[in-house]
What we know:
Blueprint lengths: L2 H24 L5 H25 L8 H23 L5 H20 L1 H23 L12 H17 L10 H75 L6 H29 L7 E3 L1 H14 L6 E8 L6 E3 L1 H18 L3 E11 L2 E8 L27 H11 L3 E6 L5 E8 L4
Parallel strand pairs: 2-4
Antiparallel strand pairs: 1-3, 4-5, 5-7, 6-7
Helix pairs in contact: 1-2, 1-7, 2-3, 3-4, 3-5, 4-5, 5-6, 6-7, 7-8, 9-10, 10-11
Amino acid sequence: MPAPLILTFVSTVAFAIQLLIFAYLYSSHRVRFFQYLLLAWGAYTLSKGLKLVDVLVLDIDHASFATEVSTVAAVGLTLAAAFAHRWDYRLRGRDVLVGAGVAALLALASVGGGDESQRVVGLGLGAAQMAAGVLFWPSRGRVRGFRGERLLAGLLTLWGVHRIATQFVSTPPGSTGYLAVHAVFITLYFLSTFAVIIMVLERARSESERLHARLREAERLATAGELAAGMAHEIRNPLAAIVNATALLTDEAGLTPDERATTLAAIRTEARRLNRILSDFLRFARPREAHRASGDIREVVQHVGALIRDDRSRAPRVDVRVAVDPAVPRFAFDRDQVIQVLWNVALNGVEAMNGRGRLSLEVARQNGDVALAVSDTGPGIPRDRLPRVFEPFYSGKPNGSGLGLTIAERIVVAHGGRIEIDSEPGRGTRVTLLFPLEAA
């Protein structure tokens, strides 16, 4: 089999494989310019297949009318893809008819007009391909481009230059020049294919990032709405108590001194509760950035344990036990924030036991993490309530703000860690704070 025929057959198979790759990608990345490039690559594959038909079936050594139409259509569709990429151009029925007419006229001129007509058509197709390359180059006014644009623009421009240059070079079939010309053409085609794939995947990744950003914004707005509803619900009860108390105070003759003192104390209590709710909400809404520094977690645990022991108003009969594994190394963490988390979790345990029971603070290594475990001997948490303990404004305590564990989880996550809760009704609760050592 002659070398030119082998080269045409191999390139046809290679073009068909690349066309299948484009078709597979287009099924999930339906971008308009990519649709036109898919059609262009299909036309190139068709032109190569028709060239085989010209030689094997029609027994002619020059391109037939159908082959020329396919080649012109491929270049025209490449230019349409460039317009679609730059200006979001859409091919309409009239444009297709005009393009088909132009392709037919150029094919007729190339087939029946002699060498000079073939050269003019070749120069025109090369110029069109160079124009497509220029249009694919990222414009200055655009905020951001996509990876692969410059590569595709450069390759299409070189492809056009190659097409123009071949009009002035005599390359008899089978000669070294013929093989070199076709090798350059196939190389440019392959590289252009890879550039298109890079562009399409990069655009898909960017679109995915924008979609995720919009989803995160929607989630943030939904959370803000939930927080607003929760705040309104939490503030309503203290405000109602304050309004009722002030109504009683207006009736000075109907209150004894003891009743008046009790009413004022209730107002102060509810005002402090309102202040606590708002303070917790502000810490949740505007968390302070973690300022990590290498420290000894033993000091934090012992400090919190001492605070619990000394707080006899909340823990009059609580046995606080602290156990720290000496193998736990120093690591980087925000001391103030970790104290806040451990204090909140420990107080939850004390309040769950009503100030009576055993509270254990343990520190140990757990795989690659430092585990701070807070265990109490309280009544435990029902299974149906466990999934909701981190929800804002959800609290099992009558006067709780419902933000303590939510803030604690946010702080631990900011340190790269996580919180695990193991609880069973009647057997107490164990809350484990896990801080990764490698994040230090």
